[in-house]
Amino acid sequence: MGSSILQFCKRHHLLDFSAYLVLMVGGIILLLKGAEDQGYYWQWFRIPKFLYQFEDGRFIAGPILNGLKITLNITWISLILTYIIGLVTALMRLSNSLMARGIARAYLELTRNTPLLVQIFFMYFVVAPILDIDRFTAAVLALSLFEGSYASEIYRAGIVAVNKGQWEASYTLGLNSYQNYRYIILPQAIRRILPPLTSQAISLIKDSSLVSVIAIYEMTMNANEIASETFLVFEIFFTIAAIYLALALTLSRVVAYFEKRYRVVT
Amino acid sequence: MNTKEFGDYIIRVDNIGKTFDNGVVALKDFSTNIRRSEVVVLIGPSGSGKSTFLRCLNGLEEIDSGSITVDGIPLDDNKKNRLEIRKEVGMVFQHFNLFPHLTVLKNISLAQMLVRKKSRVEAEDETMQLLKKVNIAEKANVFPSQLSGGQQQRVAIARALAMKPKVMMFDEATSALDPEMIGEVLEVMKDLAVEGMTMVVVTHEMGFAREVSDWVIFMEDGMKVEEGTAEHFFSDPKMDRTKLFLSQIL
Which of A58, A62, B16, B108 is geometrically suited to a Cys-Cys bond with B127, CB 3.0 to 4.6 A? Predict the structure, then answer.
């Protein structure tokens, strides 16, 4: 009898699950207790109005949701640019041209070995006046150049991992380099690198908070302002952390779905 | 006795040499000419340069010296010539190298559309004909991973044939197959030979070599040791090295 209960628990991972639950609940209790001991007075009830309000039955977005809109705008444009820059850089690094390889290499070393914060400042204070671009564009450029360098290494790893026989078969059939990449190599490489490319997208969402330093009123910037006006530091930052978390999790789920759907058995 | 009619030389190989980056000498001063409709079989111990020779013929490996001409086109640094030769020379690999993300139908149709500029309908018609020819028409819409090794190799042969090549090369096409699947692939290869396809075949299947080939070349250390008609080669080899090899393998 006892052993059959144990087996039931094992089969349904009940023990694992209970341990997980105990740890999580314990963590939350500790956190709340810590805050209470410090005499922190939680005022969650004041948070909703910073998210949204209803005036005469009309929905009005609060500063956090307005900031979220800008965060999302920065993120999706930067994400597309990141993937394009990453792919082009990867192809340049793999090309036969010494010049292309050299440029790609220099770009990678520069962007990956300096802090993003410095790059954002550089883009805003040095590049933007020369090119006459606004701060939003500067922010998007800085972010996509930074994330693009990491994405390019992911692409490169994916391309190099495609079996040598695939290249040979494709060349033997008379496909040229473009056709080979377009129809044979990239479709296989991208399926494999979807998970790391998604992590890159999630990094991008989080890193977008850094552009607040050039006075772009995205979600973190607005949160900062509210926190300094109202002293609701924990409530505000927990709220935007939850929003970032929800964004990242949604993205991973969507990608996991596509990954499963287009899996290739080799 | 062979009653096949041969045409002029389609492949001319003059004194080619190939040394790999790691210093291994794969081919030394190797020459041979192959006529239209001829079936040439290359045999020899592993590492003797047979596969490297095939791979040089369509430019998958660069030669260090000598010259190769395929159907009058020199295989040189000219990119256009290289592409042209690749279109005319089909190749079947030991490990099939089918495209895993495409169905059988698309595996075979893709290059017809991209390289031969056929419409989708034309390409797919041709593909279905070829799949019938290699006895696998019912598998048109499955992915390569759902096929047995023998079936995959037959698809690979159909894929190469779809380009209407003038020469077909087989690089140990049956070596990766389970024994019971070797027969079905050899059958397809025999049919091709009978139809008059020019073939260059690297194989360890001596039965096939004996029955189908017009010319046998025995290689070792990147050089020709002995060559001749299948009849001469298997029943009356001249060199001791050839005799030893045949006694070990037969």
Answer: B108
